[in-house]
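1st attempt posting a full record on here, be nice pls
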Amino acid sequence: RQQVDQMTAIIQFFAQNRPFDLDDRQLLTLITAIQERRVIWLRYFSYNREEWTEREVEPLRLTYAQESWYLAGYCWLRQEERSFRLGRIAELRLLAQQFEPRKAPPPPGTPVEVQIRFSSRISRWVNERQHYGYVAETIQPDSGDLVCTYRLDELREIVPWLLSWGDGAEPLAPPELRAEIASQLRRALEKLT
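the predicted structure (as C-alpha cells):
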C-alpha cells in the first residue's frame, strides 16, 4: 500500500486507451530514479530540433497520456524543467548522484484551459496527432474549422506542438498563449530578416 501511495505521487494518468507494460525496464528505471532522487543520463531525440542530445536530468514525475509516457524533470542542459517523451529516449542510465528537488512537483490542481482553432485544411491531420491535453472539439458550421479545447498543467506544454501547425492553427485562449506564440514568431522572423 505504501508503494502504491508513493507511485501515485509521481505518476499521472490522463487517458488509458490500450494496455501498457508496467514492467518495462525503462519505466522501472525511471520510477527508481524518481523515488531515490537519482540523476539520470539519457540520449534523447529532440523533436523540435530534430537531433539527438545527451542530457543529465533530475527526474520528478511520470505522466501517461495519449498512449505515451512522459517524464518531467530538471534538465541540466537547458537549465529548466522539461518534458521528455519516453519513446524518444534511445539510452537511459541511472547515475549514482542524488539530488534535492529544486521545487516540489506541482500538485494536481486546476488545469489551464486552452482553445485553438485549426483551419479546415489541416483538421484531419490534427486529429491524427492530437496533443495529450485534448478534451473536446467542435466544428464551425460556417467555415469547417475545428476548435479544440485542451487542459494542461502549464501553457508551455503545448507551445511547440501548436507552432508545428504553422498558419493552420490560431490560439484563441488564454491571451497569455496568444502572446507567447506571437513572441516566438517575432523572434523567428527576426532571424530571417
